[in-house]
């Protein structure tokens, strides 16, 4: 099982973050991001809801959502997971390219990785609840399954075996390589962009992996 960590929106799989700039239509209103919708849902007063909805960035929306003088719904801790799930479903239903990126992660464990949150994220050290990751996996399970099972690249499956080794040309090694190549070939668009950026090709694999000439890593 492989973990896919995400947090910053400009990094691989950053589209899974609530701060990613993907608007959503929920309850007849367009929200700039899922973060805007989630933070606004904390409040019962229309003025507070509007203040969050009008925030120029998801960061500002999150700041407003933490201001204790506002009209917090007393039952918020009971409602928050359902609100988050509603936001995520809308996001991935309304943005097919994101849905493809999510579906392509297959059986991978999705982890929001930051020390800044111990409920929605992993707390930075794995001790957090990672509820956002869990809810993303729930939404993923509701999507049409990716046609090819998720596979990590061969250099991660067997990091100590060089690409020139005979291991990759017979038996188990040949099967691992074939499945990894078949999965990679199934990727396109945003799903491929995120996978390729998250799993850069090591120098020693540059001649043995598809597209490595344009996306090699250290």
Task: Set down the secondary structure blueprint.
Blueprint: E1 3-6, E2 24-26, E3 29-31, H1 34-40, H2 46-53, H3 58-65, H4 76-94, H5 96-104, E4 109-112, H6 131-142, H7 154-157, H8 171-186, H9 189-198, H10 212-215
Parallel strand pairs: 1-4
Antiparallel strand pairs: 2-3
Helix pairs in contact: 1-2, 1-3, 1-4, 4-5, 4-6, 5-9
Summarize the structure.
The protein has 218 residues and is mainly alpha-helical. It has 2 domains: 3-142, Tetracycline Repressor, domain 2; 154-215, no CATH class. It is 44% helix and 6% strand.
Brief descriptors of the model:
two-stranded parallel sheet, Tetracycline Repressor, domain 2, mainly alpha, 218 residues, 44% helix, 10 helices
